[in-house]
Specification:
Length: about 210
């Protein structure tokens, strides 16, 4: 997967590649899709959700700018695959999932792999997890029409929010960084995610 799908597309960060190589994606996909576990494709999972394609997981992890001491918030645990990749690099990952059954099954998978630097929370991901803020990185695995203000507010100094922004037709992967004087932002390219489901009314993005 690393040689075939990630390196040819310009992803060369050693920590990201090592994390991607060390997490068995087949452990996180439905049994009937096991033969496609390492294809560079998003795959359906229960509750009409998806597990992201490996390239997007690697790209988002790279753009998060993680280090060994990073405190990370993930919005959208899903099966726990991206959670496990983030946990291979970061100090600790807090992951919020609105669907309790998905969170519970992700917890089981992560425990089976011995991933113990993760805290799973069931709740509205657009609100973040203020109890453990601020975060050095926030990674959102569902598309929002704008960057949710509660997430921007929970960034540490120079922390990064990595989030798909757009509607069901057009989305861009955007990165927001909390600098000393402003929120700096840039785009990493087009993407396609399920929508971020939340009753929170998103304010206009920065």
């Amino acid at each position: 997967m690393v040689r075939r799908h990630l390196l040819p597309r310009g992803l060369t960060d050693r920590r990201v590649l090592a994390a991607m190589a060390s997490v068995p994606r087949e452990h996180f996909v439905p049994p009937e899709l096991m033969d496609r576990a390492y294809a560079d494709l998003p795959l359906p999972i229960p509750r009409r959700q998806t597990i992201s394609q490996p390239y997007i997981v690697a790209l988002m992890t790279f753009e998060a700018g993680l280090g060994r001491n990073s405190r990370v918030l993930e919005v959208g645990t899903g099966t726990g695959y991206h959670t496990a990749v983030l946990a291979k690099i970061a100090f600790h990952v807090w992951s919020v999932e609105r669907l309790e059954d998905l969170s519970n099954s992700a917890e089981r998978r992560l425990k089976e792999l011995g991933v113990d630097n993760v805290t799973l929370i069931v709740g509205d991901g657009a609100l973040g997890h203020p109890g453990a803020a601020p975060y050095d990185a926030i990674v959102v695995t569902a598309a929002s029409p704008a960057a949710p203000q509660p997430l921007l507010a929970q960034l540490a100094g120079y922390g990064r929010l990595v989030i798909p922004v757009g509607d069901r037709i057009e989305q861009m992967l955007r990165i927001y960084q909390n600098t000393t004087h402003e929120i700096r932002q840039w785009t990493a390219g087009p993407c396609r995610f399920v929508p971020l489901v939340s009753p929170v009314a998103f304010d206009a993005e920065v």
